[in-house]
Amino acid sequence: MRLEIAGKLKEGVSFEHILDSIRDAGITEEGFQRLQLLDRTDLRNIMKEFHIDYDTKHHENDAVSVTLWVEKMKMLGKECPVLFYKPQNIECESSILNPEDFALVIMTSFQSQQLLKFGHEKICIDGTHGTNSYDFQLYTVMTVDEFGSG
Hints:
By secondary structure, this protein is α+β, with helices and mostly antiparallel strands. The chain has five helices and four strands. The strands form two sheets. Strands 1-2 form a two-stranded antiparallel sheet. A two-stranded antiparallel ribbon has the order 3-4.
């Protein structure tokens, strides 16, 4: 079964879709199996085992990979979605951030248009933390459109 899952991961099938399809299959005649307990960590381990990397991973070291991705995005010129980037352990004189802080602010041109179009009425900010092994906080800025959707 791991080989079948690895094939799906290599094709780019999302973690969510794989996990949903396994859980939708339900309990088999053999009863409850370990497969029904599969989670994102298991899928990441399968990716490591089968050496599956995505195009966004530019280096084994995540900090280096992010820096390389940011540099690649900067080459897009006006279409660069990176508004601000501060790697960890780097002084940033014009910032209130500490050297150990990490910050990456991304906004596509479409998101910018939506902010200009709908941001005058309402802006929502959602924060989360503990969703990755680095315990970084993630903040999302949203606007609400004419239909009340974010």
